[in-house]
Amino acid sequence: MTSMFLRFTFRLSIGAILVLSIHLFILSLQDLPLWDHFLLPSYGFNILITLIFFMVLLYSSRNKKTYLGWIFLLTSAFKFFFFFFLIFPLFTIDGEVQKVEFYTFFLPYSWCLATEIHQLSKILNRDS
After folding, report:
1. How buried is 100 (Cβ within 10 angstroms: 0-12 exposed, 13-18 middle, 19+ buried)?
2. Which residue in 67, 71, 69 sits closest to 79, CA to CA?
3. How many CB atoms lie within 10 A of CB 61?
4. What was the pLDDT predicted at 6?
5. CA separation (Å) from 36 to 43, 73, 102, 124?
6. What are the CA-CA distances from residue 68 to residues 37, 42, 57, 109, 117 (Å)?
7. pLDDT range class, residue 117, cuts 50, 70, 90
8. What are the backbone angles phi and psi of residue 67, rounded to the nearest 5°?
9. What pLDDT, on a 0 to 100 scale, did the predictor assign at position 15?
10. Mean of pLDDT over the chain
């Protein structure tokens, strides 16, 4: 269980660094400020929340495998809850959410979600 979590953490982190690098490259091509729009907090939030909820899913896979899909949906709902109460207010300080702010959150969220789903499917396929 610990080795699976460490491999997941490594894969998630390396992928997030790659996504962040591409994100910064695209921002620089468009002559946009690289570190504005809460870029690092957004990536940090997504990585941290994914790691926390993956631990919950990993623990649940050992004890309550039949409920794993429901637990995944519940953790996804909590991610949205935390986003709307912690991150979204930062993006709406100026009264609107700009396209660059949307991508600042959506790119790391997409990477983290895809990585989490991929690992969860490996867990479910391994044990069936």
Report:
1. middle
2. 71
3. 19
4. 93
5. 13, 31, 12, 39
6. 35, 27, 7, 21, 12
7. very high
8. -100, 5
9. 95
10. 86
